[in-house]
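hey so i finaly got around to running the thing on DUF1707 domain-containing protein from Pseudonocardia aurantiaca. pasting the sequence first so u can double check i didnt mess up the copy paste, my clipboard has been acting weird all day
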Amino acid sequence: MDELELRISDADRERAAAALHTAVGEGRLTWVEHEERLAGVYSARTESELVPWLADLPVARAAPAVPVSAVPMSGAAGEPLRVALGKVRRRPDPAVGRLDVDATLGAAVLDLRDLPAGTVLDVVANSLLGKVEVHVSPGTRLVDTGTASLGKRTTVDHGRRGSRPIPRPDAPVVRLSGHSLLGHVRVTIC
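ok and heres what it spat out for the 3d tokens, dont ask me to read them lol
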């Protein structure tokens, strides 16, 4: 049986949809084209039905011989976490040192509470019409250098009102960067 005639999984469709979300975000597709192609991607049953919707995009040209089902799931250690049209919760391994998170029309929730003392974790959080939530423990040093365009970045402290603990010298450090476009990046101290 030809590999293009193999049935595809929901994960294959989600990866193809993520490529379309990236393309519209980069201006390669209009929103009307995006909507049409997204409908085609979600109705595709085989690889051969999926290929035409991605054929003229750079991601498809970069590796035409690799079927979508062979692309690893995102979010594994050291790989970016990309969320589209859904909600994903992760408690990442702080030893990776850097987390890249992209939320497009979806939500990514990172649980960074109870990080070991001395940990330094860089989080690059990007949201396009989506939301990235980061939960940290009180006493964690938070450095937010990210930006927002028609979106927002907020920090919410659910601790005692008026008294925030002073971080210890060996407190974990979370350095947050990235961009929010019509989306939201929120840090919750809890």
